[in-house]
Amino acid sequence: RGAVLEGSYEKDKKPSIPQLSGAVWEACSSFKKVPATNITAIGRAITQVAVSMKDVLREMKEVKPASPEDEASGDDEDDDDDLGNDLSPEEMEVAQMVAEIMSETIMVIKELIRVITGMIKLENPKDNSGFVDSLEKLLKLCKGTGDQIDEIGACVYPPQEIVKMKQALKIIQGNLDEVESEVEGLKSASEAFTGACGKLRSSIKHMEGELDKRCEDEVVAGMQNVTLGS
After folding, report:
1. Which residue stretches, if any, does this entry annotate as coiled coil (predicted)?
2. Residue 208 covered by a domain
3. 127, 38 Cβ separation under 8 angstroms
């Protein structure tokens, strides 16, 4: 499981951080080959969203489980130097799921950029209002998703905020649906883009299920404490 956080490959070949970085910059360089138009400017802005997400993903790579000494002492004093270094095994599992969501969100944006650059190369569209409007909507959705990636990343640090994570996942899911719909409207969805969307959707569903279980466990534990205390 730690492979996602360590930036290496797992069996199903989840993208590593260096690979994602290369993919993002490859997409960015392709925009530089296109004349400086509104379309290109929007494309570069979408690329920047992916670059920012990559930075948050790198932070997820740096979170660590609590050492046995910390757990034994029960020392909960705040120390900025130890931020993200004191996660329980359960919290580390959540951090790994978050890293997976981040990786796959970046892959969706990378494939979206390829779709856009492909359209520019094939059709060489001028700045017609319809096409630009679609790209502006896609940019807005990508930025909104980036905000939620920031939110979900912040929620990983103890005490983890499960409710906020679930809210962020719902927004990411809604944005993903809209992005996919917009690309379908442009009649330019690639197999890779559709596949990346499917993987992200599946990971969101998995994480939502895991978070629901944790919420249920907390409720049960709380009820048991009340019963024992009465």
Report:
1. 162-189
2. yes
3. yes
- Per residue in 68-105, pLDDT tens? 665 555 555 445 555 557 899 999 999 999 999 999 99
At 15-62, the pLDDT tens digits run 555 555 666 666 666 565 544 467 778 888 999 999 999 999 999 988
Cα dihedral sign for 216, 221, 225, 227? positive
Alpha-carbon distance of 124 to 70, in angstroms, equals 59
Whether residue 76 lies inside any domain: the answer is: no
Taking alpha carbons only, the member of 64, 154, 65 closest to residue 102 is 154
Calculate ∠ Cα 195-201-204, nearest 5°. Answer: 145
**How far apart are alpha carbons 156 and 161 in whole angstroms?**
7
Whole-angstrom Cα distance, residue 212 to residue 170?
13
Number of domains the chain contains: 1
179 found inside a domain: yes
CA distance 33 to 190: 21
pLDDT at residue 128, as a whole number: 62
Could you tell me how far CA 211 lies from the centroid of its own chain? 16
CATH code for the domain of 225:
1.20.1410.10
- Residues 6+ positions from 59 with CB-CB distance below 8 Å: 84, 153
Whether the ω angle into residue 159 lies within 30 degrees of 0, i.e. cis, is yes
163-179: buried (b, 16+ CB within 10 Å) or exposed (e) per residue? eebbebbeebbebbebb
- The answer as to whether 220 is a domain residue is yes
Residue-number span of the structural domain to which 162 is assigned: 3-68+82-229
Q: Which amino acid is at 193?
A: F
